[in-house]
Inverse folding.
């Protein structure tokens, strides 16, 4: 048997998913940004996300920003399903020599973004460990949830914001695209949507595979952050922008309405979904972020 | 500022809890076995719990039992609120050199106990780290939930099962007292209930403090596992038995009915809740498990 480094993250996840117990209360199981289960009026979204010291942050980072990031990532996933975040639970693994003030600042950062998005932090768990880990479980609700697998051949692919170079600062300070995602779900019904967390080069193939189609993307057309090449916009991780597909007939009105609704947030057509075998993935350098590589 | 080792787990948690954002959707916030939020017909219970390599298990443990334990602990907390577990999310932090077969076995153990308790595993998160961590977020529902803070002076204290010596094997193989907890909630309405995870010596004072009362406990009367002294039954952790308080007038019928319902599970009166200043905690050796000590 291989190690998980040799196997890779996606293959590991596929192996795990194959045999999980699930019954009719589950509307959507593992493999998307969130799980979806039966709720009261609306469906309930469930998400867990973790950040690890020296993988997602370093100890010289301001602790408020570490706490902020831990929750913001999960909000981004709830947003990417077209949902509204509700309640958070926090697991903190901490080395015993951690300063109590560090933990307080971390929680202040988390509480501030929770308050901003009207999220309750309802519970948590602490344990000691050799390396700091912050795992956030977040619930949400959605009247119309958007999976990543609903796209069809011919749908146009778009991304919000600009990509690449997130490591400089954006990965700590990004604003989850919650408002934009809710607006999209309400007025323009994307056929598929996800947030870009491991880099477009990894996440777009995941979306296309989930849709059972291929993709063509124009890397030179990618919206790049200042100082970033299109290649980095393609492969860098932690953008936390929305990637979505929409019926071609709706694109023109979307672009028009978006400019009025979000004049400061770029929206860029980056390609389209095509039939299997007609994609251009093989012409693009592979890349993106594998947690075990 | 102190380190968290100096501060201790309970003080750290108190500091964190003090400033968390919460609104009217939260029926019960941090500090009990689970959080309680508004659900559809029933209240929804939310719990997160983590186990860490070399703290809660070692790598020479059978991986199926590690996975089993990770979920069983959270089930025990849902049970301790009088709830029924529903959906689980799993965060796995893994060293890249972990064998893929280890992860498969771990998930098999988790899936088996999930299936046994009709729990859906709906999602997860994986990341690399230097030390293995398994954090489980679990939802549940409860028509009548039981907090740990409802006990009054004069209420009788009872525990299920036998205590102490869990490290030998029980901490990996225990059956969460879900059936018993639901039965108690339905027929005998404990005034306060929690599961014993950090040892009675730590958990009973927490319950008494939450009730705003003191306790008297007869350590010699504690139900001990084979080979365990009453002292160890008092201080050892990871029993995962139920500790609950009940109105004195209900005790006799409870003992009678319990013997019919659960003939193989001991139920033992261990003491009672008393007015502040009338307890005997000062006569007992302190102890129990502090995660940062």
């Amino acid at each position: 048997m291989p190690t998980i480094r040799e196997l890779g993250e996606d293959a590991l996840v596929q192996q795990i998913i194959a045999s999980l117990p699930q019954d009719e209360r589950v509307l959507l199981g593992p493999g998307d940004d969130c799980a979806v289960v039966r709720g009261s009026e609306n469906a309930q979204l469930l998400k867990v996300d973790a950040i690890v010291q020296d993988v997602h942050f370093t100890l010289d980072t301001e602790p408020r920003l570490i706490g902020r990031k831990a929750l913001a990532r999960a909000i981004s996933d709830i947003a990417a399903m077209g949902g509204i975040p509700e309640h958070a639970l926090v697991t903190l693994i901490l080395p015993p020599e951690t300063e109590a003030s560090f933990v307080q600042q971390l929680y202040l950062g988390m509480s501030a973004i929770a308050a901003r998005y009207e999220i309750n932090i309802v519970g948590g768990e602490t344990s000691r460990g050799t390396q700091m880990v912050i795992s956030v479980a977040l619930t949400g609700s959605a009247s119309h949830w958007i999976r990543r697998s609903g796209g069809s051949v011919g749908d146009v692919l778009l991304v919000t914001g600009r990509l690449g170079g997130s490591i400089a600062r954006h990965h700590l300070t990004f604003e989850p695209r919650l408002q934009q995602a809710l607006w999209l779900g309400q007025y323009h019904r994307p056929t598929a949507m996800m947030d870009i967390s491991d880099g477009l080069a990894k996440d777009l193939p995941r979306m296309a595979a989930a849709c059972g189609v291929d993709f063509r993307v124009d890397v030179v057309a990618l919206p790049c952050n200042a100082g970033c090449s299109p290649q980095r916009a393609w492969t860098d991780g932690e953008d936390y922008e929305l990637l979505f597909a929409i019926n071609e007939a709706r694109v023109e009105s979307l672009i028009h309405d978006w400019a009025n609704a979000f004049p400061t947030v770029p929206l860029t057509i980056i390609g389209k979904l095509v039939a299997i075998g007609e994609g251009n993935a093989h012409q693009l350098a592979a890349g993106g972020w594998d947690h075990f590589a």
Summary: The CA atoms of residues 13 and 31 of chain B lie 8 Å apart. The two ends of chain B are 17 Å apart (CA to CA). Chain B is about 30% helix and 25% strand.
